[in-house]
Design brief:
GO terms for molecular function: endonuclease activity. The protein is α+β, with helices and mostly antiparallel strands and 192 residues long. It is built from 4 helices and 13 strands. The protein has a single domain, classed as tt1808, chain A, CATH 3.90.1570. A 6-stranded mixed sheet has the order 3-6-8-9-10-11.
Length: 192
């Protein structure tokens, strides 16, 4: 039983119907609701998914992820796992089954994607976490998760600018970032 179950939040999430166009996540006990993403965001997610061979990898968008020992149920933009390891039907996918999680930064998710989700995915043992940032026009690949709880983090970090090839060794794939769009008139931030 996860910490989420101990607080009754799993039942809440199973029964709660957010308004149309709203995405809801539980991040370390905090309920976060977000509006539908920008077209730039959606096009990047699709471009990445299309470059990961479906014959070798299962690619799932907006699937609820159960993070072991965390009061969290995140909904990554894209997650990748080996074919056949996921159950046929289930609302929550255990983080232990996931090879790669992808989050595309939105105009309002910068701190969550670079901060709390980085720690949550590392605590859940997700081997690779890819942050794609249309604000700063770069990708940040985090690997080698260590630690537990809020102290968890990734030991390795590689930054790739949009336009350069993005090697994803965990999938044996190289992603072309040339056509990744950026947000216009958005203030830069301080992350990598």
């Amino acid at each position: 039983m996860t910490a989420v179950d101990d607080r009754g939040m799993t039942r809440f999430f199973e029964e709660f119907e957010p308004p149309e166009g709203i995405k809801i996540e539980l991040l370390r006990g905090e309920v976060v609701m977000m509006a539908a993403p920008d077209l730039v965001h959606n096009r990047i997610v699709t471009a990445v998914q299309d470059q990961i061979p479906p014959q070798r990898w299962e690619r799932l968008q907006t699937t609820d992820l159960d993070i072991a020992n965390e009061a969290s149920e995140s909904v990554p933009d894209l997650l990748v796992l080996e074919p056949g390891v996921a159950p046929d039907s289930w609302r929550l996918l255990p983080s232990s089954l996931v090879t790669l999680v992808v989050e595309v930064v939105s105009k309002t998710s910068v701190d969550r994607d670079y901060g709390v989700k980085r720690s949550i995915y590392a605590a859940g043992g997700v081997p690779a976490y890819l942050i794609i940032d249309p604000v700063m026009a770069h990708c940040v690949l985090l690997t080698e998760p260590v630690g537990v709880g809020e102290e968890a983090d990734y030991r390795a970090q590689r930054v790739t600018k949009f336009g350069a090839p993005l090697p994803l060794e965990c999938l044996d794939v190289e992603v072309d970032t040339t056509d990744f769009g950026t947000y216009k008139a958005v203030r830069p931030h301080r992350y990598p």
